[in-house]
Amino acid sequence: MTATSVAAAVRHEPELLGQTVVVIGGSAGIGLETARQARAEGAEVVLTARNRERLDQAAAEVGAHSTAAFDANDDAALDQFFRDLPGQVDHVMVTGGGPTYARLADIDHALARRAFDDHLWLPIAIAQHAVGKVRAGGTLLFMDGTSARRPDYGMALISINTVALPILAANLALEIAPIRVNVIAAGFVDTGLSARLLGDQLDARRQQLRSTLPIGRVVGPADIAALAVHLMSNTAVTGATFDIDGGEQIVPRSE
Questions:
Q1: Is residue 34 one of the residues assigned to a domain?
Q2: Within a domain: 1
Q3: In whole angstroms, what is the distance from residue 57 CA to residue 61 CA?
Q4: What is the CATH number of the domain that holds 198?
Q5: pLDDT for 110-166, tens place per residue?
Q6: Residue 28 main-chain phi, psi, to 5 deg
Q7: How many domains does the chain have?
Q8: What is the pLDDT of residue 212?
């Protein structure tokens, strides 16, 4: 086999060629990296985020087809966004809404409502809007976590969202079929959001993970984005939740 034939054998068609991917929360971190990898696989990307300046910068980085700056939890703004799409799209990924940690004494109604809006109501609203706007066989992808599956102090709100989203997604997959609905459940991911949450404890957390995770390294946005692109292209997958945490859940908890 010649070098030319080997190169031809390993060359593959872009997995998302001619498709359109919407990334809600696409101005940084996992969302931006997913947009970048989707573009590399031939997709056009539409980015949304709250902050217009960061959104424009992200769009320039990946060559986005278009952008929209709005709060996805604003029902009217979300409705307007989907109505303004010029045609059908193939995939919608939602990455917005970080974790909410609060001990019982510090939980108030407004805090709980924001957490549930971010993680539970928004997927329902996206699914409602997807009907007629996402092509048959296309995908809705939602982000979840793995760490809150273990009870701990301050985890009440996030644990509800963590365990509820997979079963919600499975129900949505039935309701809006043949549009597919899947969840990516991540552990620690080395993003700007993680840096803001951990502050000066970030380096210590990274080192701890490098020394304890079976994979021997920290999970990054590119790892999550690669899984997201795979789930967009694999049309046999729906109603499923995929854990990606470097093996964090199987590491024995220290006493």
A1: yes
A2: no
A3: 6
A4: 3.40.50.720
A5: 888 888 888 899 999 999 999 999 999 999 999 998 887 888 888 888 888 889 999
A6: -165, 170
A7: 1
A8: 93
